[in-house]
């Protein structure tokens, strides 16, 4: 671990920003830098996904704890249902953003045909997405945690599953 951090710091200190960005695009960076770039791509996809969930939760399908809808407080069951629905509706948008940013900056395509690679990528995204939905269902349904806490648990669960699957199953290491 210390050698990986040392390699990363050496790389960052010895190169100017233009060189770093060029090497990121060429995937010629230390593994820890690649992971940081992957995390940045994930943040972009997460902002898109969570932004859509938030908009939907405030507007079309209310999903906020204690929210008053039509003069009555939103029930926990309705909140859970709407939060799950909002995540399902936001999923394709975040997944598409993740695909394109990962192809541009992180992973090297070519292990599979383009169509198979895309199918695997979105299949892996679903593999991370459904455990995340289960976490929301569990936390909100059983413990009535606030929606924001459930969404954070969703993001963490999805992130961990997606990275491992994309790194070792779809793309060339």
Question: Main traits of this protein?
Answer:
two-stranded antiparallel sheet, 6 helices, 2% strand, mainly alpha, 173 residues
Model description:
This protein has 173 residues and is an all-alpha fold. It contains six helices and two strands. Strands 1-2 form a two-stranded antiparallel ribbon. β1 (68-69) and β2 (72-73) form a beta hairpin. The radius of gyration is 19 Å and the shape is elongated. The mean pLDDT is 89.
List the helices and strands and how they pair.
Elements: H1 2-14, H2 17-25, H3 31-58, E1 68-69, E2 72-73, H4 76-105, H5 114-143, H6 147-170
Antiparallel strand pairs: 1-2
Apparent shape: elongated
Compute the CA-based radius of gyration: 19 Å
Helix content: over 70%
Number of strands: 2
Strand content: under 5%
**Number of helical runs?**
6
Short description:
With 173 residues, this protein is mostly helical. It contains six helices and two strands; from the N terminus they run H-H-H-E-E-H-H-H. The mean pLDDT is 89.
